[in-house]
Queue: 2 jobs
Job 1
Amino acid sequence: MEILRKVKIIDFVDYSKYGLIFSIFLTIGAFVLFFTKGFSLGIDFAGGSSAQLRYEQNAPLAQIRQILEKTEGFKGSQVSEYGSNHEVLIKIPYTNLFAGKNLNVILEETLLSTGKFEIRKLDTVGPKVGNELKQKGLLSLFLATLAMMLYVSFRYEWRFALASIIALVHDVIVTAASVIVFNIDLNLEVVAALLTLIGYSINDTIIVFDRIREKMLIDRENNITQVINEAISNTLTRTLLTSLTVFFVVLTLFLFGGENIVGFSLPMLVGVVFGTYSSMFVAPKLAIIFGFNIQEYHQKEIKKQKKAQEKERLRRMYENGVV
């Protein structure tokens, strides 16, 4: 299936200068958020309890907050609407007061005066387990990024490899910042979204870079700008189809999956958009900025081909008994 039957060559390299400026501002803004507002750790990482309540009537959020704030052990709890005005999510900080006790019963007794409700879900994570989950989650992100860095370093000329790595880190930083912007708790779902994004983003960049390399080897064109523009334009249909397919699947999860997976679906929505954008408007332009020389690349490829031909000639001579 093709969206663009007749390929029109778009000057992506020229537009990329605006993309780089936009990305620089986004990255700076992301770091400002990291060091000022910071992440709100979810129960998975911070420890504590998360209770989901469903009322028969509209949930009295103000009354619930007032009661919990006056009750020992529940001070500092976060109360918010959860999907509908009948459901409430209560995040309770960890305390030793509830150790070994049935929190369901305590919560029911504490909120008895707020109306008739049922506790649909109650999750509790200790601080030690939460800290271990946080360390393992961050470690998995680091290792996944490192693995992608090693892969592209062996696969491409170092300038293209460096450009793809920077684009990948850019996508992760921007997506992580969106977690703060949309007030999503940093938990295992967010880590899963970032890990998925790492694979998606680097795959998108590799498709574009492979096409650029093919164009350089086949056409022997010495204008790198023209090669990049033609390569990205030729892969534009594939990129749009893939990105839109993933985007609409994740959008369906976000719209109909409920609050339970918003920590995965919303960062993925942001990540798909910026992963596609960076593969076309950031990574190729960075390769040019880093001083990639297409003439030198062609000379290296010619030397490689000559070495391969000489190796093949010597192998045939050896097989035929000629020394």
Job 2
Amino acid sequence: MFDSYLTGALTGLGLIVAIGAQNAYVLRQGIHRQHVGVVVAICALSDALLIVLGVAGVGALIADHPTALTVTKWLGAGYLVWFAIKSFRAALHPQGLELGGPVKRSGVIATTLALTYLNPHVYLDTVLMLGNIANQHGLDGRWWFAAGAVTASLVWFSALGFGARAVAPWVARPSVWRVLDVIIGFTMLLVATLLVLS
């Protein structure tokens, strides 16, 4: 059982750690110290939900309906392009780290949900891939595998969101935010392009 748990944790980390729109947003919110707990909770709970659905067999159902993934792909790509433009505009007028700035929780929640659920790769990684790998561990082992993947997700998003505070003093300068916003913008465009081409 522990082997399945460890395999799930390592496989989950391998898929989650890749630089993407969701991770970039979690890092940004962590640096700004704005609604970090909400962002981390949404990301980790969403991953847990999708992993459990994949292990329960929903992945096979989604594979039989590729139109749903296609629609999500285009919606997600459009959203990522909009987010990239927003980041590039912020880079034109950079500001230093603003702790406690006026950011509405509802906007943060909406953005986090969009970056999570409008990204087809999240379904491919969690529901299809992790679900299929988990189901190779047998009836009992698959749930231990799922538990490992869920743990990895929780640890990763917590470390990314709350660990970002450690670099907060360094990013107090506007010039650093200009670079970060440009990197985030290009990351969003790259992910959008990969979505469209996939």
